[in-house]
């Protein structure tokens, strides 16, 4: 597993993906997919991103703001809050600032996803995602005795994707902020991703 590149991919969330998050003005729902460093299997995390994000606009982005929702797992409301905050920037800075809000799911969020249609989707028990606990879904394969994917790896995947200089060559800053109830603690023991550009 050492030396394997960590290259997450952001893909549009289609209607048949099994993910049914609330629609928010100015945002779209994408799936961040990657091969987990922990399980060596493909996994996915739903994220809200700016609707205007495309291969044509990637180069103009200078700052990425990743806003982590609180224990209510209300990424749609977190998106609206951080979008309102961005609205206080100059028009020029608004156009150069991309918003990303991950949706950490748990078993209470069954209305937001259909497991039968989404074998890759990460789901945690309770609010364990806020403490870096391993996911309970997807189930590890028989050949893999891993217990799940840490939410810290999911945050690393977000960082790795937007730090990719081939796609986002103008990015100068990636900022993580959180709702006060999001308990993410520094991952002192967590190995950061390896970047290859």
Automatic annotation (TrEMBL):
Alphabetical list of InterPro entries matching this protein: AB_hydrolase_fold
PANTHER family the record matches: BLL0132 PROTEIN, PEPTIDASE S9 PROLYL OLIGOPEPTIDASE CATALYTIC DOMAIN-CONTAINING PROTEIN
The protein's name in its UniProt record: Uncharacterized protein
